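ok so for the tutorial part 2 we go from a plain amino acid sequence to predicted structure tokens. step 1 is just haveing the sequence, like this:
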Amino acid sequence: MRARWPIALVAALWVAAFGLDRARDWVAATDLPPLTLPSSVEVVDRNDILLRAYTVADGRWRMTVTPDEVDPSYLAMLVAYEDKRFWQHDGVDWRSMARAVAQAVRSGRVVSGGSTLTMQVARLLEDSGTGKVSGKLRQMRVALALEQRLTKSQILQLYLNLAPFGGNLEGLRAASLTYFGKEPRRLTPAEAALLVAIPQAPESRRPDRHPGRAAEARGRVLERALRDGVISAEQARQTQGERVPDGRQPVPMLAPHLADRVVAENPGVPRLKLTIEAGLQKSLEALAREAVQARGEQLQIAILAADHRSGEILASVGSAGFLADRRQGFVDMTQALRSPGSTLKPLVYGLAFDEGLAHPETMIDDKPVNFGTYAPRNFDKIFRGTVRVREALQMSLNIPVVLLTDALGPAKVIAGMRRAGMAPVLKGDEPGLAISLGGVGVTLHDMVQLYAAIARGGVALPLRVMGDGAPGQRVMSAVAAWQVADVLAGLPPPPGAPSNRLAYKTGTSYGHRDAWAIGFDGRYVVGVWMGRADGTPVPGAFGADTAAPVLFQAIGRISRSLTPLPPAPPATLLVSNAELPQPLRRFRSRTAAFELTADAPVVTFPPEGAEVERLDGQLLVKLRGGRLPLTVMVDGVPLRTDLRSREALLAMPGAGFVTLSVIDAEGRSSRVRVLLK
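step 2 — the prediction. this is what the tokens look like for a chain of 677 residues:
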């Protein structure tokens, strides 16, 4: 008889092992539901702060979070309350299951549950019920399979992302943002306890609808946490005065227009990181609302701020509010085509400085003038006579800038805009003289990019919200860019604004439809547009009165003090009008002495568009006509002011494209653009 016991034991062990192997095979053969569910697309700022999120296709908030992004006290409270042996069991806590069954048999009803966190994950993945035996068995099988294929941390992450919190909230992060207005990295014990309690009965414990029940459930979790040593007695006392939130807070929606745009441009990308700074974005959105609050129901505003050194956009406010109200807040006015008014004038002056047409101290006429049927007038219909170019730009006079545009040619102004990365839209096929007064369609983004190029010494750098940027083309020389900035920095600030030498320009389009103010210091550039989204006039709206005060407030919210503008480049001609070369002392339009005649100077070598080799850094220049002495300029910088021959070797500043200008003693001129090698 004794000899049979070993045989029976071996047989029993074999049967158990066989059964265990078959059970493992049964678990391994489990067809698991998809472990990756759609989650909310998120747009975050440069510091990973949430700017905006989007619901998944069925309208639920399901926002990704990992265990290391969650307050450890919440995780400890969750495991202690829901599944004490979570880190030890294999998906099913057989001890808890046996206890739950025994209690049910003794009392005739369910007293406690034996469901583990892994089993809850199985139920959430398959959206299955808990009441039927078949459903419970399926959850056990899926839970065992999950434990075979995933780590405990991965299973916990699934729970954190799938747990229901009432209404359309799924996952801990969506609940924390909605009920507490913050990420779940730092939670009070009371907040953690509430978030542990809600998923057990998500609809009946919703704090926004049933705050009393939510408070009771939170209390039970806190009692258990104190009993199990998860929280201290002192922490438990501190929770007594903490109220349960009785409403839902909106999920962050900063930079909504920009977020919509980048999401549309990057379909399928779950998380988009922008160069935006959330604190500044929030501050400028508040400033935008304040700016239009007392100005009627239709006035709209847009603000764009960037670091012109890097090209990174730091804040983009498309409207005063992302609403379909009378202001049409859903329209992104940073991207809308509008007339720039006088804000294009700095570009014209910079190009004119480069061409040797003028200098900030050059005298220019502000008198009635006709160009065929086109007769420009100043905004105030007053003529100032002869003024310095510096004053003409600061006073935003129209006649001088049209004279310069005529001398340059409107096509060169358009080409300069395009080199700056702008996309100007013309009313006709060919640009006319009116472009310098706002007769072209541009966006606030384009205008800020232009001023950023001026601030960067004349080199464009495309503004961006994602990725890395690379310098673009040169718009104007470093000397011309500095001269423009120096003139703009001399403008008086609006009443009440600090006198801080911010380089800025205002503009008002025809019919008071657009009010602009764009400015920069040594690091930041900000543009403000105000008007109506539908393009109708805003009586009494001027850039100087309406937009400029907002510009100065925006700059103040970026930095307490201005970053100084750079010093003048070495080649800058810093002299008075009397010390300028004779041809630069007074601007003469093409309708006066600028017309080419038989005696006007002409550059015969190098010819227009030529590629020329320098000889030891020098260029052979051949001239014809003109009254001596001659002045030769390269990119607006005088190279020789007393040339008394018509052939000379001139030292060139370096390789690349240059504009070579020659001006005779009577102010007549000609110029060529060549490539030096």
